[in-house]
């Protein structure tokens, strides 16, 4: 959500645009003249592209020998344009990008939605949506000469230094997406910024804190040797299947090691796709389908593997554990889906700050593996499985209560909006 402080909420205009294979994102503009902006922050006109307007074309100004994730800026922008359904004709309206800089794809999507927008760094236009050929000529010249525009005219100039933020619904966060000059000296920093820009803001504790740096190294290696995200997912799927057999045989340490490799690669494939602009329909189905299907098999075969330790659960305890874990997993997914359906696609985990914090530890695969790892350290994988069952029941109850609270509040006329949006407003 692009945000500048304002007293009255009615001065805001919200709008939603499609993301590149990632759902949608909501942005915010100010109506012109409604609010004084402090400290000289640029005023945004709110002149947004509507459905009746033709999509702009796309053009990269200049050449840059430095590649980001193995891609020249021309190729990177071409992929962004293709994902957004834009052509690369030199015709206004046109999205103009400065090849001397690297930027987060969120800025590109924002520029598409905002005719007349000019994003600058050090006064130099980096990304712009020229509405006519006169604007395009002036912007091309400024980008090519690495200088500010001679005249702003009716363009909406947004200085990156002013720190505007965007709420990214797909990645569940609100931030200022990265923008950097791209040189041989800055390419590593740009890759790092691009990688972390592709990271979800609301996720589980392991993905958020344990292996981001490991996954960054692997993402760089995969990009350097030309691996595709689907190839990474395939390797991860193999590790996932072998881990399942290891659990079934009671070889929990081997299974957890293989599972750890799979879980890290589950981060790498998505980051590689976003950083190299290679997201695809099949990639999303493959990755998310695997994530959705495999956890119940892990829990089931963890339970059957207990016999190898002489710790087999009684039939009653095994039935309870499977019903609680597998049933609770399904119910949680249903609750999350119902929440999204009721409240415009918003995830339950971004409703309030509590929900985002609870997502760190809620009973999903990664937090559950922490419980099982700790129990196995004490040679009691059986207690670990029962602990996961109870934690799933508790997590399911929390989600059910939160859905009920949202429904009650909505019925009483209170808006159900993300705390990320509320914080911006």
Supply the number of helical segments.
Answer: 14
**Uncertain segments:** 1-46
* Secondary structural class: alpha+beta
* Number of extended strands: 11
* Shape category: elongated
Tell me the helix content.
40-55%
* Total count of domains: 2
Task: Give the percentage of residues in beta strands.
Answer: 5-15%
Largest sheet: 5 strands, mixed
The CATH class name of the largest domain reads Mainly Alpha
Task: Write structural notes for this entry.
The structure is a single chain. The chain starts with 11 loop residues before the first strand and ends with a helix. Helix 7 runs parallel beside helix 9, helix 9 (281-305) runs antiparallel to helix 10 (315-342) and helix 12 (365-377) runs antiparallel to helix 13 (381-411). The chain is elongated. Residues 1-46 have low confidence and may be disordered. The longest helix is centred in the last third of the chain and has 31 residues, at 381-411. A hairpin with a 4-residue loop joins strand 9 and strand 10. A five-stranded mixed sheet has the order 3-4-7-6-8. Strands 1-2 form a two-stranded antiparallel sheet. A two-stranded antiparallel sheet has the order 5-11. The chain is of the alpha+beta class. It is built from 14 helices and eleven strands. It has helices at 73-83, 105-113, 133-144, 187-197, 205-210, 212-224, 229-248, 252-275, 281-305, 315-342, 353-359, 365-377, 381-411, 419-424, and strands spanning 12-18, 24-30, 57-61, 94-98, 101-103, 117-121, 124-130, 156-159, 166-168, 173-175, 179-181. It has two domains: 48-165, no CATH class; 198-424, Up-down Bundle (Four Helix Bundle (Hemerythrin (Met), subunit A)), CATH 1.20.120.
């Amino acid at each position: 959500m692009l945000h500048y402080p304002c007293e009255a909420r009615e001065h805001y205009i919200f709008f939603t645009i499609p993301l590149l294979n990632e759902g949608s994102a909501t942005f915010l503009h100010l109506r012109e003249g409604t609010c004084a902006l402090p400290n000289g922050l640029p005023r945004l006109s709110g002149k947004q592209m509507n459905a009746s307007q033709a999509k702009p074309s796309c053009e990269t100004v200049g050449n840059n020998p430095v590649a980001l994730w193995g891609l020249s800026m021309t190729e990177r922008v071409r992929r962004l344009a293709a994902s957004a359904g834009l052509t690369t004709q030199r015709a206004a309206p046109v999205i103009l990008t400065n090849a001397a800089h690297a930027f987060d794809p969120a800025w590109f999507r924002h520029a598409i939605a905002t005719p007349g927008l000019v994003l600058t760094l050090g006064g130099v236009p980096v990304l712009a949506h020229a509405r006519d050929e006169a604007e395009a000529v002036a912007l091309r010249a400024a980008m090519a000469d690495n200088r500010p525009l001679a005249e702003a005219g009716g363009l909406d100039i947004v200085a990156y230094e002013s720190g505007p933020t965007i709420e990214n619904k797909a990645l569940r966060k609100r931030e200022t997406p990265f923008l950097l000059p791209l040189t041989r000296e800055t390419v590593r920093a740009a890759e790092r910024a691009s990688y972390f820009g592709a990271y979800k803001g609301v996720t589980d504790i392991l993905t958020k804190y344990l292996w981001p740096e490991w996954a960054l190294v692997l993402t760089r290696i995969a990009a350097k040797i030309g691996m595709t995200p689907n190839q990474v997912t395939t390797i991860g799927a193999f590790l996932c299947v072998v881990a399942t057999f290891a659990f079934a045989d009671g070889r929990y340490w081997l299974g957890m090691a293989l599972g750890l490799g799979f879980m890290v690669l589950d981060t790498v494939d998505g980051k590689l796709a976003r950083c190299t602009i290679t997201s695809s329909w099949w990639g999303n189905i493959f990755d998310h389908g695997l994530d959705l299907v495999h956890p119940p098999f892990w829990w089931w075969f963890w339970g059957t593997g207990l016999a190898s330790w002489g710790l087999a659960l009684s039939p009653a305890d095994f039935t309870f554990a499977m019903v609680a874990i597998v049933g609770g997993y399904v119910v949680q997914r249903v609750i999350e889906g119902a929440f999204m359906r009721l409240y415009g696609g918003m995830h339950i985990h971004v409703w309030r700050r509590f929900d985002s914090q609870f997502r760190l530890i809620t009973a999903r695969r990664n937090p559950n593996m922490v419980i099982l790892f700790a129990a196995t350290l004490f040679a009691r994988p059986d207690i670990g499985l029962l602990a996961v069952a109870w934690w799933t029941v508790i997590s399911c109850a929390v989600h059910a209560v939160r859905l009920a609270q949202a429904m009650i509040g909505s019925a009483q006329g209170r808006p159900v909006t993300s705390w990320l949006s509320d914080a911006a407003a």
